[in-house]
Give the backbone structure.
Amino acid sequence: MKTLENIEHMHTQESLNYMKQVYQTVKERNLYETEFHQAVKEVFDSLVPVLAKNPHYRKQAILERIAEPERTITFRVPWVTDLGEVKVNRGFRVQFNSAIGPYKGGLRFHPSVNASIVKFLGFEQIFKNSLTGQPIGAGKGGADFDPKGKSDGEVMRFCQSFMSELCKHIGPDTDVPAGDIGVGAREIGYMFGQYKKMQGGFVPGVLTGKGLDYGGSLARKEATGYGTVYFVEEMLKDNALSFQNSTVTVSGSGNVSVYAMEKTQQLGGKVVACSDSSGYIYDKRGIDLSTIKRLKEEDNKRIDEYVTEHPEALFFEGSSGIWSVPCDIALPCATQNELDEMGAKILVANGVAAVGEGANMPVTQEAYEIFLDNNILFAPGKAANAGGVSVSALEMAQNSARIAWTFKEVDEKLQVIMKRIYRDSMEAAKEYDSPGNLVIGANIAGFVKVADAMISQGVI
Ligand code: NAP
């Protein structure tokens, strides 16, 4: 006899098979792109109950369509060093999904950048941008260029060459890039200048993360780090916990990390460790953030310099060791897959209560499962680090209206957005029988809006 339960089970099984078959195609079509596979699998796994309840998504081939970028641009970036040598890097822009707005997402300059990295980031951006509730589609880009150790002139010439090609593909209503690893205010400034020269007009809405004196938004610099802490704070509050008097480790010492540390300290938490790719520092009295800001934002120094100014602090080579520092809250804010199974086991053994991803996909699947098995509160990056792109969208709004909000105005809007993302993710998780699971909730809440918009717009 066909009971309701049997029918539901059948739909779930069919959806699982459909999901697996599409995932297999994604793997075959994007051979060796392991980070991209990882990001797709994590989202697809969450969507099985949604597909079971909504068979029209399958009929409309939504998984096949959502995992295929609308457009991928790869280009040569030639530039000249201070010594007159000609160098060539590879530039990328992946325009992943424009169902709910112009492509939006950062540019990363780092030697590890390749098609897999750009596609994983672009794919994640679809759901993140949807979660913000703002009208922004998804894109990501960058180059395998390493700004480290380059002079200002070299960085400028690289950025100009990069933008000479990229400018053909972007615009305030089509694609609006921003910064990411290796791309801060300096690089955005050089690229903005070159865009202006190539296009022959001042178009503030073409890039976000701009300097304050030419169309940037107050609180954009702080937005991702602050937003991550606002999100984690909501999660802690729901579980009768808080940052107050907690011990916190924050990996990285770049844009996201510095402002996650700042907000943590403002909320009464003690940050005892941070890192860069060379190693980590441990300061049991609490990290002196003004030193980190000066070393990293002004002097371009390595993290071990901190201990020369604070001899009671310790420096350890190797960045992954940071997870051996006992803490209540861990905020991985550096890079993808930086917190693996071993790190997760040590954090759990040391009594961590919550983990919040400030970076994109910093926690491996195996590490996540350890947190899940041990009931550790977990804030996924897609939701927790959406504050950066949210304020980028606020920057676009200010540029369109030719106005500038105060820091307080932007920060208040950011807090409202982060709280709403948290609630929406919790509600979606509950609706699909995974109460409290923010990974599943964020994936579903982000997906449904984009999938419905894609269906409304026909097969394009
Ligand atoms: P960033 O300013 O370039 O800083 C990156 C930091 O991570 C640097 O301190 C870097 O050290 C460190 N790092 C790199 N690899 C590391 C490793 N294996 N172990 C430890 N530290 C390492 O970049 P960011 O903008 O803060 O971005 C950090 C992460 O947040 C990325 O995953 C990015 O995609 C994500 N994110 C950024 C934004 C944003 O608004 N910026 C928004 C959303 C998500 P070195 O200097 O030694 O390389």
In short: Residues 4-29 form the longest helix (26 residues). The chain has a mean pLDDT of 97.
